[in-house]
Amino acid sequence: MLLIFTRASGHVPLKILSIEDGTVLKSFNHLLHRNKKVDFIEQFNEKLLVKQENENLQIFDVRNAELTEVSSTEFKTPSAFIFLYENQLFLTFRDRTVAVWNFRGELVTSFEDHLLWHPDCNTNNIYITSDQDLIISYCKAESEDHWVEGNAGSINISNILTGKCLAKINVSSGCPTIDECGSNHGGLKKQIHSRMRSTVAEALEDITALFYDEERNEIYTGNRHGLVHVWSN
Q1: Pfam families, alphabetically (predicted)?
Q2: Which end of the chain is more exposed for a tag (fewer CB within 10 A), N or C?
C-alpha cells in the first residue's frame, strides 16, 4: 500500500507499507518540479507512476531506484487507469480512447474500433475478462464510413493485446426484439419483475452498467430506465 503525504516545495514524501501487518517497507521522497500540479501518483507492485502537469510520465522502480520517462507528447494524462496484473500492463482511458502500456513506458496496443460512449470513462460500462485478454465496452456506434448519431451505442469486444475488434453488438447485428426485466422499487420490498419486449435499438440506448458472465457467456446491461437486458448466444 502506498501512502502519499503532504507535498513539500520540491518533493512529496512517500511510504510503502505491507498490507498484511502495516510494516513500512520503504520510506522516501520523490522529487517534483516546483509549481507544477501533480496529475497523479499511482502504485503498481514495485512500480510508481508519477505525472505532473505538462511534464513527462515517470515510472520509478522502488526496489532499485531505476527511473523511466515517457515524453508528455506521447503520454497524455488519462482520466482513469486499469492495471492488468496478469499481463504486467496497464490500460489508460482518455477522450473516449483506450490504450495499453507496459512498465518500460512503451505503447503496446491502440484499439482499431473501440471508441467509448462516455468521454470521461465511465468504468461501469467496461468489463475486463479474468484472463485479462478481452475488453468489453459500451461504445459509439459506427457504420461503414461514419459514426452513427443518436442515442443507440454498440457493445464492442476487443483483444487487449492486439487491439482487434473481435465482435460487436449493434442495431444492425441484433434480433428485432429482446427480453428485458423491469422492476418497481418499493423501498426495501423484494423487486417484482415483469416481462416486456424492447427493440435492440432501445436496449442499446443510455446504457449505464455492463457486466459479462464468463461461465454463461452472457452480457448484462442496465440502462437509465432501470431495465436490465441479457445478451446471449
Answers
A1: DUF7899 (PF25463)
A2: C
